[in-house]
Amino acid sequence: MSTVSISPSATGHTIRDRVGAHHVVSFTYEIGREKIKEFARAVQDDHLTHFDDGAGRELGHDGVIAPVTFVSVIGTAVLPELFENLLIGYGIGDILHTDQQIKLHRPLRAGDVLSSDLSLESFRQSGGSDIMVTANDITDASGELVATTKTTFVARTGGNPESENFQGVLDGVLRQGG
Predict the structure, then answer these.
(1) How many C-beta atoms surround the C-beta of residue 156 within 10 A?
(2) What's the CA gap between 134 and 97, in Å, rounded?
(3) Residue 8's beta-bridge partner residues?
(4) I want to staple 53 with a disulfide (CB 3.0 to 4.6 A). Which of 47, 63, 92, 141 is the partner?
(5) Residues 29-66: pLDDT tens digits?
(6) What is the pLDDT of residue 90?
(7) Backbone angles phi, psi at 116, to 5 degrees
(8) CA torsion 32→75→164→96, rounded to 10°?
């Protein structure tokens, strides 16, 4: 079995050294009522609980709730810090998002102010690829865990981590309202 070398990052650490590391994201994300509606329309989820407070209350919620996949909005927002602090040496153009697991501990609600604690759960190499699993523990303003996501990324071993400007690619993919 051959061993593939992993280039150290600017800090002198390899990605293997980062396994188990955490990074608390430097900003919070407040879920807006209109963002919930906009997202629900975009993913064609027409359940009334995403549009009408009364429908949400009928099901025991305080008002509108976000679709389960709304956590992807938060996940996308934290990507720059994920690459800067945990997936050091990789860029958005180097990776392929191959798996996503979402566990909601409670529904996401309009008005929630959420924080993210990112971690690198594992790293392994197989077939010329680097396989990385990250986690995002999302908590509300009171510290209650509201969602946990696990994401698997794959990159070519020895790929060119300087091949893409992350923010430029992200800006080209995201369409943000003003």
Answers:
(1) 12
(2) 11
(3) none
(4) 63
(5) 999 999 999 999 999 999 999 999 999 999 999 999 99
(6) 87
(7) -125, 135
(8) -140
Pick one of 3.40.50.261, 3.10.129.10, 1.50.10.20, 3.40.50.2300 as the CATH number of 15-32+70-160: 3.10.129.10
For residue 159, the model assigns a pLDDT of: 60
Tokens of 167: 């923010």
Interatomic CA distance for residues 152 and 77, integer angstroms: 17
What residue ranges do the domains of the chain occupy? 15-32+70-160
- Report the SS3 class of residue 76: helix
Q: How far is CA 36 from CA 68, 74, 108, 152, in A?
A: 11, 12, 9, 26
The residues of the chain scoring below 50 in pLDDT are: 1-12, 161-166, 168-170, 172-178
Could you give the 3-state DSSP secondary structure of residue 13?
Answer: coil
List, in order, residues 6 or more apart from 144 with CB less than 8 Å away: 105, 106
pLDDT (0 to 100) of residue 131 = 93
Spatial distance between the Cα atoms of 79 and 49, rounded to a whole number of angstroms: 28
